Amino acid sequence: MANFGAPAHAAAMGNAAGMMVLAAAGVGFANAIGDAISAAARVRYERRYDNALTSATAHADSMEELARIAMTMLAELEGENSRLRAACSQRQQAINQLKGRRS
User: Which pLDDT does position 1 carry in this prediction?
Assistant: First the structure.
């Protein structure tokens, strides 16, 4: 179909290159926004991961300290148990000697 010099057709053809540049810029802008959103999500994920890792490390450190304290207390209790067993054994020997004298 011939345009026969229609001004609207001439204007559209003149603006076609500009509209293509604007469309390309719009697509580029949309891609940039998508990349920025992805980068922000990645930063949030890494921050949550770092916080969880720091928290887990701190918990492990406190559990290690608690285990050390428990082992120290256990060693003390084992020593006390040995002393009590020795005392009970001595007492039983004394009781047995006293029983032997009476018989």
Answer: 54
Instruction: List the structure tokens of 27.
Output: 């697509």
Alpha-carbon gap, residue 86 to 88, rounded angstroms: 5
How far apart, in whole angstroms, are the C-alpha atoms of residue 38 and residue 82?
A: 65
pTM of structure: 0.52
Distance CA 40, CA 36 (A): 6
Euclidean distance between CA atoms 88 and 68, whole angstroms: 30
CA angle centred on 10, ends 7 and 13, rounded to 5°: 150
Two tokens, residue 86: 């020795």
CA 92 to mean position of chain CA atoms: 58
Residue 30: C-alpha distances to residues 21, 23, 86 (Å): 14, 10, 83
Residue 15: per-residue pLDDT: 80
Question: What's the burial of 103, exposed, middle or buried (CB within 10 Å: 0-12/13-18/19+)?
Answer: exposed
User: How many CA atoms lie within 13 Å of 78's alpha carbon, on the beta-carbon side?
Assistant: 6
